Each structure stands twice: as C-alpha cells, then as structure tokens.
Amino acid sequence: MRKYAVFAAVIALSVFAPTLFAQCSDADKKNLEAFDRAWGDAAERGDRAALMPIYADDYVDVSPAGPTNKMQSIDNAVRAAERNKANPAAVPKVEHDYYIISCTPNSALITHRNVFTRPNGTKFYTRSVHALEKRNGRWVVVSNAGHPVDDAGMLLYMEREWADADMKKDASWFDRNFADDFTSISSRTGAISNKREEIDSMKGVTTDLEEVSDMNVRIEGNTGIVTGIYRARGKDEKGASFDRTSRFTDVYVKRDGRWQVLSSQGTAIQR
Fold it and tell me: CB atoms < 10 A from the CB of 83, how many?
C-alpha cells in the first residue's frame, strides 16, 4: 500500500539514513537501544544514582530552552519525577520508537521518536537525538537535543507506521488513518481501490520486509504530499514469492486536527 518543508541535511540523515558508519553491527545497535531505554527508565524513576554514570562529566543538553550541564539535567529529571509521583493521574504515558542508530567503535548517534499519550487519549510527539562516546570502556552521553515533531515529520513517521502496519496486517491502523474517501492506484495493475478494498487486499499476503526510503514531503495548508521509494518482499495470496519496489506519491489531508491519507499512487521500479 502504498508553505514547503525543508529539513537540514544533518536532521534528514539522523532520522532517515539506516546507517552512517559501516562498523555499527546489529548487536551494537541493540545494545545502544537498550542503553537508551535504561536511561529513559532511570529518568522516569528519578533515580539519581542510576543517572550519574550515564552522563559524561562534560555533558551538555542543547535544547531550545537553553543549555544545561550534567548536574542540572539530572536535577531536572529528579524534580520532574517527584512532580509526576505527586500527581500520577496527569502524567502522559511515554513510548519510544523508530530508533535509528549509527556508531563507530568509540562514538554513537541515537535518534528516536517519543510518543506521549495524555490521560484523555490525545497524543503529541517529539524527537530526540543523543550523541554518545565510549570512555574507559563504557558508553556515556555527551550531548542531547530534542524538538517537537512538526507536520512534515508527522507525515514521514506515518509512512513508517504504514509499512509496519502493513507487515502486521493491522487493519485498525488503516481504519484510523485512511480517510473515508481514500483511493489507491496499484503500482502493479493500475487498478483503483477505495478504503475498504485496500484494507481487504492485505488478506492472504505475507511480507518479511517492508521499507520506505528516499522520502520527500511538501505541505501547503491542510494538504501534504509525500513521495518516496517503497519496497516489499514476501509471498502473495497464491504462495508465490515476490520482491517489489515502487516509487510512491501519497496525499494527506488534515481534518479535525489530524492527518489522514487521502490517496496513494505507485509506479513500479524494475530491478
């Protein structure tokens, strides 16, 4: 299935490049993600003892609110945890996803999305970028930056969610995120499908790989257009193996404050 926004090159690379350095193995990435999640858990608990060895002594947070050093950042985390414990009903649930990690033997860059779900069910999103160094045989965080996810970022992450939902056959994602008047043009047959037909077309097809890349986004008012390359590999409803690549154009519309997919069109790329 398948005013303009401009991203600085460093942001685009840190969010969408699968890797920046060849030395970063899957095991390295798994360990670094575990490190990041343990850091987040310690901050949520306000665990000063656990946070102390995570931050480098020369750590600097470069958030828009202004730079903070190691001790200021830990103090802020402890105070925030105490406030949350005093009023847990008002605390949003936080999830981290879409990790992209690059590393060399002694340096690493971690970026991921943060999804905050408020008690009333509404959500907001931010993105974090962490710079790490290996010192005396262990990883420490030397710098951190974060910012809200803007509309362009929302659409780019929705494309990733779309591919994941397709692999998992998560019909509820498509029910929520496809507009009721959604239409799709198949990259294989040119057939036009509506929302229900497109969701039903997932049945019987299994995939072990779905990925999006080379994405660009444009936004004008309440309309967004995302172009990119989509690859799917798996077996069709007859059990035949396939490995397909297409260039897609997806049109989004913002209705009632949230983005929905209005149309999708793909053009097959011969491999």
Answer: 12
Structure confidence at residue 11 as a pLDDT band (50, 70, 90)? very low
CATH topology for 10-148 is Nuclear Transport Factor 2; Chain: A, (3.10.450)
Indicate if 151-268 has the same CATH topology as 10-148. Answer: yes
Which CATH topology does 151-268 take?
Answer: Nuclear Transport Factor 2; Chain: A, (3.10.450)
Is the pLDDT at 139 greater than 90? The verdict is yes
Percent of the chain with pLDDT over 70: 92
By the 8 A CB rule, do 194 and 261 touch? Answer: no
